[in-house]
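Hey, sorry to bother you again with one of my protein questions. There's a protein on my desk that I can't quite get my head around. No rush at all, and the record is pasted right below.
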Amino acid sequence: MRPSIMEHSDESTRIVGLTKGRIEALTDGIFAFAMTLLVTGMDLPIGAHSVVPGKVYEILVGLFPDFMHYIIAFVTLAGFWVAHHVQYHSIRFIDRRLLWINIVSLLFVALIPFSTALVGDYPYDSLASIVLEANLLIIGLLFYWQWSYASKDYRLVDRSLSPAAMAAGRRRNLVVPALSVAAIILARLNVPWSTAIYFLVPILLVAIPSDRAREPSD
């Protein structure tokens, strides 16, 4: 028998008329927009339309850093989007604090196309790498805060969710922040392509069990 649970979600904390579906719709739109804008960071050189065919290979080689960082950012954003979907599947409703945590996280999601374009243009500049890595670090910490706030003492989540599942969610939300800290350290040590560490994101997410087991309702 689970100990009695305090009811944190009284009517005074809820936002009348604003359902979690509205938040999910806004989040989906911001993620779709940001992920689409990533491709605009791969700009062709000025005058590329007039080069001879033999130069196309050189242009593609020159765009390699942009393309790799496009993949890194796209896959990482996709991971964040999946995490948000999984979290909100278990969240019953929202309150003002959760709303604003989500909105602030979207502020930094929308910034990803800029930070990705920056490091794509200056792949060997440690500061450019740190800008992207710090951007991802902030998003990861906000996602961790969002889930920790919603799941603490079953504040906003479904009460049939098991403690193991909630703990697994917190561990998975720490993957990107942990990799971001490591990447920033590598960039500070002038290690080239420190952002390549994000290719470990899908591997680590698969390695950490989601443990979505649910307990029977009381």
